[in-house]
Structure prediction request, 163 residues.
Amino acid sequence: MAEVLRFSENLEENLIVLQNELIWRTWTPRPYRRFIVSEPKTREIAAPDYRDRVIHHALVRIIEPLFDRKMIDTSFACRVGKGTHAGVQKASEFIRESRAKFGSFYILKGDVPKYFYSVDHAVLKRIIRRTIRCRPTLWLLDKIIDNGTEGDVGLPIGALTSQ
Prediction:
């Protein structure tokens, strides 16, 4: 919380500095603050510095609508107007429909363990470039993707942009 207060003390100046760093492409992400959480499962969280979070939020406001309209309607995680409750309601609806149509049925619960740690940066960048063409935005996305991991594989969990 202290970093939020420090940033807010000189809010206008800090925002202008960030804006200039983005315009001149001199912005460099600061190191992540790393910590372990164990609910619902043990994993390492990498929290960006507050000033970097400001940039992540601004970026997501621009790119989220572009990607959201490409997603399937039954994807509920980390989407505006979706979420856990909407997902549960849709799953309940599917269960009722399947029970009425087939009687008995099976549900497969799937999870890709350590998925974020296995994301190939080059593949992710190619996928992003199918949707985004703006060079400054791509520069910023590349900086964020390449930050926080060793090598060209893996994304840290904990930033808004990792969603």
Notes: Strands lie at 33-37, 43-47. The helical segments are 2-9, 11-23, 50-68, 84-102, 121-129, 135-146.
